[in-house]
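Please discuss these two lines.
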Amino acid sequence: MTATLTAPAAMLADLAHAVARIFRTDDRRGALVAALQTAQLSPAVFVPGIEHRAAAAIVRSGLPSVEHRRRTLHRRIDEHLFLDIEAGTGVRVMACWDDRVYRVRMHVAEIGDSLLWERIVVHFTEWESTGRPVPAAAAGATS
C-alpha cells in the first residue's frame, strides 16, 4: 500500500528539521551526561535549595536554558544533573549525607566553559535570600 503526501514541501521540510533537531539534542544530551559521569568530582560548597522538590522549576525560573534532573543513588546519596544542551555545558552534583558532621556534603563535576556551577550557586543563593519562593507552575506539584 502506498500513501501520497499532499502537504506542501516547505511544511515537510520544517517537520524534517524539527525531527532532526530532536535527535541531535538527544545525542548531545547523552554525550554531555556521559562526559559528566566520567568527570572527576571535587568538593564544593553546600547549596541550599538543590534538594528542594521543585528544584527543576526553581532552576527554570532563573536559568531557562538549564534543565535539572535528580535521582537517588542510595538513601543518603542524590545525584543532580544540570544540563545546558545548547551551550554544551553541564554540572553533576553528588549530595551525600555525612553522619560524622550531621550535614550534607556536595561534590561537583563540570563540563564546558560557561561557569554553569557559579550561575547555579548564585541563582540558589538569591532564591534563598528572597524567601525560597516556589514558582507558580510547581506550587501545585509540591503541595
Observations:
- Residues 16-23 have pLDDT under 50 and may be disordered.
- Residues 9-135 form a domain with the TATA-Binding Protein fold (CATH 3.30.310).
